[in-house]
Amino acid sequence: KNGGVPLVLYVGDGGDVNRSVVEALPAELLATCAVAPVTLAGMDADTLLSQGRTNFLFALALISQDLRIDRNRVFVIAGGDAVEEASYLCSLLPHVTAGLAIFGNDVDPKISANNLNLLTIEKVDDLAAASTWVLGAEPRDPFRKELSFDLAESKFPRFFWVQVKKFDPPEDGKAATIKVTADRATNTIVIEAEHVYQVELFLNDSLVDLSKPIIVRRNGQELTLTSNPGFATLLENVKAYLWDTGCIFPSRLRGIDIPAKE
């Protein structure tokens, strides 16, 4: 833990949550975690990606102003009709949460296998079981060494420490795909991608040795880069992550072009 309290973003059945619903949550959960309601009620697909995203991140930012939140222990609980919407939003922001507990419905079938694998999801019987799971769940790993994801929505180009700058938008259900692996032992980052043309990498010494040249292998073609870590880059990234002190990247490699696969 990083010294803060765990947080639960709660989306109730029907997607609408008020204070009385939150106060009725299991006592052990309320005694251990901060809880912030998130409203996703009545949103179509476009509204979910705009207003739904705003509601989700605003709830996180607002409670973080009043409490010191352990950003590696931010969980989502969703039930009933809200499960599809909450799961789809979480699949586009997997670096924000440590896990998702669902009951009363299944995750959105539109979520690709790659993006689903970036989420920790626990399907349980009811709210009480969801609360029990959250209390024992593992924290987020914000510095995963291997990432595979599909760019299902054009407005969601960042996953963990990889931001895709140029890519083909989804068309006819087919999305651009990318796999990125960091190997600190060889100071090498391997990128394999389709319909992706440029990326940025946010790095720290957990992923690579920033004091040494970094080899970036892009669809088989190698590029050697040097890092220039600094406080300004670190601060810029923390602000972009809504002051997420569990996710620190002092280095940013910009404008890495991705050649087409041979």
Summary, kept brief:
With 262 residues, this protein is of the alpha/beta class. The chain has seven helices and 14 strands.
Can you describe what's shown?
26% of the residues lie in helices and 32% in strands. The relative contact order is 0.12. The protein has 7 helices and 14 strands. The protein is of the alpha/beta class and 262 residues long. It starts with a strand and ends in a 5-residue tail after the last strand. It has helices at residues 19-23, 27-32, 45-66, 83-92, 113-117, 127-136, 231-240; strands at 5-11, 34-37, 69-79, 99-103, 121-123, 146-151, 158-159, 162-167, 176-183, 188-194, 196-203, 214-218, 221-225, 251-257.
User: Unreliable stretches, pLDDT < 50, 5 or more residues?
Assistant: none
Question: Strand order within the widest sheet?
Answer: 2-1-3-4-5
Rg (C-alpha, Å): 19 Å
> Which class do the helix and strand fractions yield?
alpha/beta
Please estimate the helix content: 25-40%
Order of helices and strands: EHHEHEHEHEHEEEEEEEEHE
Shape: globular
- Average pLDDT taken over every residue: 91
Roughly what fraction of the amino acids lie in strands?
25-35%
Count of strand segments = 14
Q: Tell me about the biggest sheet?
A: 5 strands, parallel
Distance between the termini: 44 Å
Number of helices: 7
Task: Pick out its properties.
single chain, alpha/beta, 7 helices, 262 residues, five-stranded parallel β-sheet, five-stranded mixed β-sheet
